[in-house]
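Figure 2 data, in text form.
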Amino acid sequence: MQIRTATTADLDALERIYAAARRFMAENGNPTQWGDGRPTRGEIAETVRAGACLVGVDDAGEPHFAFSLYAEPDPTYERIYDGAWASDTPYVTIHRVASDGTGHGVFASIVAYTRSRAEQLGLHDVRIDTHEDNRPMQHLIAKAGFAYCGIIRLADGDPRLAYQLSF
């Protein structure tokens, strides 16, 4: 699969991918993380317009997974509880990882792509967070070499497990 920046033409496929991810999470003990229908089409469209939404596409150009990538500081990462970040150097952040479930090695592809993008920017740290009930994502994050750093709080106060990969 190739990874490319999403366009507004991908919105229907992105909604399908996020719906599949919500079903997977609900079936695997995490019904509340995106249980309220998030990200909404409007939130997805905003991320696409900002150029932060990326998609993994097959040889026919059909999207099968998505994620967001940011190279600016995440305001929710300013404070970390019950731990500390591995470093305070600039970083890139991975958010909203989702797959339609048709591929294997999706997260490894996302991490490889993210590391390459970070290196192009002269950065050597990647941060990510996930819901405490999202055991499959926690497993993938650890398998990819991220270190658990502590707990961050989203803007609405919900806690998330925070991780960092330094290279």
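Caption note: The longest strand covers residues 63-70.
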